[in-house]
């Protein structure tokens, strides 16, 4: 009986590793143009080809809304299934059906996030380098940029979890990040740790970093979402 239990546990662990790995590889493949440019940028940066590095950054910004954002939304839809208890959901079917269904919304959100992030980063750079008497504003812009980028955890989770207009998704993502920041901060810290480990051991990036971050992010989002739902239901019950 003890041997059966050990074998069953090992089988479940191997299943989880397989799910995480397959989902992560699908994400990388569907985001391949973006990550190709990212790798080329790193190579050029190490070779001091700074003009080419700038070109790669612009190309990444152009490609992100059309590749990285839809693929990430699809990955969050898969990890949502796991958090919701449907661990046996078919990976390929769930990923690609979600990719197709949410492509337009993820793309539009990606354009918004990319354009605004570029504008805010440019503003920060100008304040900190060319207008040094206004560096306080630069710090404020940087803080806003961090909050804005952190809201991406909620953005992808909301797309995966329920239907809303793109504007509503972005608005709710930012509001949840500002007014319920603790779990977003936790997601951010753990995500940075996973990526840091991935720099040391690239196999983590290839076979698990993205899907692990997506799973953790949706898990934290769902806990926050449940608390908000309970608060709304309690208020409605008190008013009735």
Short description:
The chain has 240 residues and is mainly α. The chain contains ten helices and no strands.
Describe the structure using short key phrases.
240 residues, mainly alpha, 10 helices, 0% strand, globular
Give the helix/strand layout.
Elements lengths: L1 H29 L1 H15 L3 H14 L4 H16 L7 H39 L5 H27 L4 H14 L1 H20 L1 H6 L1 H31 L1
Helix pairs in contact: 1-4, 1-10, 2-3, 4-5, 4-6, 4-10, 5-6, 5-7, 6-7, 6-8, 6-10, 8-10
Distance between the termini: 54 Å
- Number of DSSP-assigned strands: 0
The percentage of residues in β strands lies in under 5%
Helix/sheet category = mainly alpha
Secondary-structure element order, N to C = HHHHHHHHHH
Helical residues, percent: over 70%
InterPro entries: DUF624 (IPR006938)
Organism: Paenibacillus agilis
Keywords: Membrane, Transmembrane, Transmembrane helix
Pfam families: DUF624 (PF04854)
Task: Describe, in plain words, how this protein is organized in 3D.
The chain is mainly α. The protein has one domain. Helix content is 88%, strand content 0%. The chain has ten helices and no strands. The mean pLDDT is 90.
């Amino acid at each position: 009986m003890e041997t059966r239990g050990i074998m069953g546990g090992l089988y479940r662990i191997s299943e989880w590793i397989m799910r995480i790995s397959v989902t992560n590889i699908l994400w990388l493949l569907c985001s391949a143009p973006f990550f190709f440019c990212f790798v080329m940028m790193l190579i050029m940066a190490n070779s001091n080809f700074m003009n080419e590095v700038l070109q790669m950054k612009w190309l990444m910004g152009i490609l992100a809304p059309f590749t990285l954002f839809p693929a990430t939304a699809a990955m969050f839809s898969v990890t949502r299934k796991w958090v919701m208890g449907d661990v046996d959901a078919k990976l390929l079917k769930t990923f690609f059906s979600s990719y197709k269904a949410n492509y337009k919304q993820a793309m539009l959100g990606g354009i918004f996030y990319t354009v605004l992030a570029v504008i805010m980063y440019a503003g920060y750079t100008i304040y900190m380098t060319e207008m040094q008497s206004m560096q306080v504003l630069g710090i404020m812009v940087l803080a806003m940029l961090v909050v804005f980028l952190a809201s991406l955890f909620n953005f992808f989770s909301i797309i995966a979890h329920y239907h809303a207009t793109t504007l509503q998704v972005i608005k709710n993502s930012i509001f949840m990040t500002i007014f319920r920041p603790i779990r977003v901060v936790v997601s951010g810290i753990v995500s940075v740790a996973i990526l840091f480990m991935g720099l040391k051991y690239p196999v983590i990036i290839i076979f698990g970093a993205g899907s692990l971050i997506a799973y953790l992010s949706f898990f934290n989002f769902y806990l926050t979402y449940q608390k908000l739902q309970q608060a709304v239901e309690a208020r409605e019950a008190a008013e009735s």
